[in-house]
Amino acid sequence: MIDIHCHLLPGIDDGAQDMDEALTLLQMAVDDGITHVVLTPHLHFGRFENFKSVIEREFAIFEAAVIERGIKVKLSFAAEVRLDALILQLVDNHSLPLYIGQAQICRKNYMLLEFPHSHIPPGSDMLIKYLISQNIIPIIAHPERNRDLLKSPNKIKPFVRLGCMLQLTAGSITGKFGEQCQVLALDYLAQGIIDVVATDAHNIKRRPPVLSEARAKVTELHGEATAQSLFHTNPLLIIGQA
Length: 242
Ligand SMILES: [Fe+2]
Fold this sequence. Notes:
By secondary structure, the protein is of the alpha/beta class. It has helices at residues 19-31, 52-69, 87-92, 124-133, 147-151, 157-162, 170-173, 179-190, 212-222, 224-238; strands spanning 2-3, 36-39, 42-43, 74-77, 80-82, 109-114, 136-141, 165-169, 196-198.
């Protein structure tokens, strides 16, 4: 399994707070059967200003510690980018932390995009259209936890039609975020509009890096082929290794 969304890079957002916690979380991910972890710290203007240069620097430190600890796992990084008009500047100066390097000719780049939890801001579609015109495909993080979408699930449809991908959080599928989120997660899954499942891991107790339980549930409900797509094949495409 490949985890394309987690907050294991220590000390730069509300995820792992120090190197010890980060390495413990990474070992938990490996023990769960995760073979590739993409570290996606929050890039939230005014709150967590983790621009590409910051993440690159912290990633190098973390990678060295992982090698020293002897944890066998593939690592890469991107960011969970909070929706903001300032994203446009980062596109222009090629400093948006995408899943693979800078824009490559004839190749799509993927970006993890987070709406505010409370709502979908007006104008989101315009920003998304612009990103897609620049060959950047937004992957909308955990739509099943957005309060607007919990009230009106169909509000996600225009974004799917525009070409966005959708990422569910594993814990939503297994009920760890409550019944409402689980119902919406399972509804979106049944509609076949979900592209990828990720842990969005932040810490050991409440939000651990575990995918296996959600994978088992998806297999039970929709079969092995769907589980393979959501936990392996589509993540590989996103990280440019398909
Ligand atoms: Fe996240």
